[in-house]
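--- STAGE predict ---
source: upstream dedup step, 1 unique chain passed
mode: sequence only
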Amino acid sequence: MTNEVSEKIFQSQKEETSFDNVAFDLNYEIYDDPIMNLSFCGCGFLGIYQLGVAYCLSRHGSGLLAKVERIAGSSAGSLIGAVLSIDRNLIADCVKFAYDLADEIHAQPLGVLTPKYSLMKSLEKFLDDKLPHNAHEMASGRLYVSVTNMESRRNETLSHFSSRQELVQCLLASSYIPIYAGLKPPVIRGKKYLDGGWTNNLPSFSEGRTIHVSPFAGWQDICPADKLGRGIFVTFKEQTFQVNWKNFRRMHQALFPPSKETLRSYFLKGQMDTERFLRQEGCYESHKPRNSTITVRRETSL
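--- STAGE serialize ---
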């Protein structure tokens, strides 16, 4: 996909208001932490939110990304981690794939649960088409994929990939939910695996700082800031959730894709929440001169 087409995809999703000579008091210092890590949670079709996060980090947080040594992910989060680990230019292709996949599922009589429809086949074809031939070499030691061993029911983190095909199978395994995503689990090195979210939906690293990303409101570094139910939190599979009706709706949308317009809103929301995080941390990088027109994006209610 050309840069021109990629830019059109992103620009077409922004509802913008421009203000002249708006001054922001920005601190451009980058983190002092010696080791930085990223972690993306499992979230199904709301991975589109995390693509918005990845896009904003690529455009306005390159200094931060340069310091990131390891990227972890579970389920859809592992796919986002793979993109950032291998080739950020794939973000545009992933956004288009997410929209097309939602349309494909909406066209099925019973959605993703339609007999003979295979969500995993569509995902596998996309990965086969888009990942470069040396993707496994680029991802090894940098990408950490959370999976669940079907025999032991314990979490494992896979970070070294012997081939491109093994990398693809690891990413598929991290997203595999029995029956929902098919009847045959991915097999890696003779072992059967399923969705990493069953045992660890938001991995952390013991060394350095881990920046956690989630489309669900909670205590993550980058996530929606809901006002409703702000005093009630629960922890499930290593991830903290705020208890409110918006999160319950998001959980449903993670499994059953909402409309394309709603997906676009999540993509934009991911960008806005990431911009807020970068500004709060003092490492937001603007591509516009300080005295030029500043674009302010409107908040959504997701």
